[in-house]
Design brief:
The structure is a single chain. The protein has 301 residues and is an alpha+beta fold. It has 3 domains: 32 residues; 73 residues, Alpha-Beta Complex (Type Iii Antifreeze Protein Isoform Hplc 12), CATH 3.90.1210.10; 130 residues, no CATH class. The strands form 3 sheets. Strands 3, 4, 5, 6, 7 and 8 form a 6-stranded antiparallel β-sheet that branches. The chain has a two-stranded antiparallel sheet with strand order 1-2. A two-stranded antiparallel ribbon has the order 9-10. Strand 9 and strand 10 form a beta hairpin. It starts with a helix and ends in a 5-residue tail after the last strand.
C-alpha cells in the first residue's frame, strides 16, 4: 500500500507541475500577442540631382554627367535640385567648385544660367582678388594650392628707423625689414588653375588671393616698395596671428655693434692708468747719522 501511495503521489506532483508550467506559458503567449508592434516611421522620398562622374572647375554641365536618385524629403540640402530639367531648364551652367561622384549638385558650386567659369564667381561678396608674382622660393616650393590660406610677407629697405638705429647701427642690411602685409588670405588660383582638389606641387609665376579692399590696396603698394613672398599657414590655424616688423636686431643684435662695444671696453682698459704703489718713510739712525728709506706701505684694514 505504501508503494502504491508513493507512485500516485509522484504522478500527482508531476501532473501539477506540468499544469502550472502550461498555464504560465499560455499567459506569456497571450501577453505577447496583445502588445502591438510600433508602426514604422513614414519617410517620404523625393529625387535629387547628383553627379555620376567627377566634375571639376570650368566643366560644362550636361545630362550625361548627372543622375537623379531618391532622397529623403526632410533632409534635402539647401540649394539642391530635384530634377535635371530644373537644373538645366534656364540655361547651361559651369562648375565652379569640384563635385565628386554621387555628391549632390548644389547651386553654390555652379555658375548662374548661361554663366562662365570666371574668377569673379568664386569671390566672396565684398572681397577682392589680387595677383602676386611668385617663383619657386616665394611660392613655398610650389606647395601652395587653391583653397590654402597664406600670409603675404613684404621685405623692403625701410631706411633709418629708431629701432634699427639703437640695435643694429652700422651693420650690413641694418635697414632691411620684413613685415606681414596681409594675413590669412585664401588662395583662389595658382597660375591659371583654380581646382581646389589639386594636390600635386606646381611652380607657377603668379598666385591670386582673396583679400579685403584694404588688403588689395596694401598689396598694390607693397609691390612697388619691396619684394613679396608667401608664407603657407596650417590648415587648422585660424585668425591673423602675430604681426609686426622684423629687423636685423631680431637675430641677436648687430655684429658691428658688438664689435664696437668690445673695442670701447679695450680702449677704456688701456687708457686707465695703473695705480701707483704707496710708500712710507722710515728713518734709521746709526750713531749720530740718520738715514731715510722708502718702504712699501701695508694695506690699512
Amino acid at each position: 500500500m505504501i508503494g502504491i501511495a508513493a507512485v500516485f503521489g509522484a504522478i500527482s506532483i508531476f501532473a501539477a507541475d506540468f499544469w502550472v508550467k502550461r498555464q504560465a506559458r499560455a499567459d506569456a503567449e497571450e501577453k505577447t500577442a496583445s502588445i502591438a508592434a510600433p508602426a514604422p516611421p513614414m519617410v517620404e522620398f523625393k529625387t535629387i540631382v547628383v553627379a555620376n562622374a567627377p566634375l571639376r572647375y570650368g566643366m560644362d554641365l550636361d545630362r550625361a554627367k548627372l543622375n537623379e536618385i531618391p532622397w529623403p524629403q526632410d533632409s534635402l540640402p539647401q540649394g539642391a535640385f530635384a530634377t535635371i530639367d530644373g537644373l538645366l531648364g534656364d540655361g547651361s551652367r559651369v562648375v565652379l567648385s569640384p563635385i565628386e561622384v554621387n555628391e549632390p549638385v548644389l547651386l553654390t558650386k555652379l555658375s548662374g544660367p548661361n554663366g562662365r567659369a570666371t574668377l569673379s564667381n568664386m569671390l566672396t561678396p565684398g572681397m577682392r582678388a589680387v595677383t602676386i608674382r611668385t617663383d619657386e622660393i616665394a611660392g613655398v616650393g610650389g606647395f601652395v594650392t587653391p583653397g590654402d590660406r597664406v600670409d603675404v610677407v613684404l621685405t623692403r629697405d625701410a631706411g633709418e628707423i629708431q629701432e634699427v638705429a639703437k640695435n643694429a647701427q652700422g651693420a650690413a642690411g641694418s635697414t632691411i625689414t620684413s613685415e606681414i602685409v596681409v594675413a590669412d588670405a585664401k588662395v583662389l588660383s595658382v597660375g591659371q588653375g583654380a581646382d581646389e582638389r589639386q594636390t600635386t606641387p606646381q611652380v607657377a609665376n603668379s598666385i591670386t588671393i582673396e583679400v579685403t579692399t584694404e588688403g588689395a590696396q596694401k598689396v598694390a603698394l607693397a609691390r612697388t616698395v619691396g619684394t613679396l613672398s608667401l608664407s603657407l599657414r596650417s590648415a587648422s590655424e585660424g585668425g591673423d596671428g602675430k604681426n609686426g616688423v622684423t629687423t636685423i636686431s631680431s637675430f641677436g643684435g648687430s655684429v658691428a655693434g658688438k664689435a664696437q662695444a668690445a673695442a670701447g671696453s679695450l680702449f677704456d682698459a688701456m687708457a686707465k692708468e695703473p695705480e701707483q704703489p704707496k710708500f712710507k718713510t722710515v728713518i734709521v739712525t746709526r750713531g749720530t747719522t740718520a738715514e731715510e728709506y722708502q718702504v712699501p706701505a701695508r694695506d690699512q684694514k
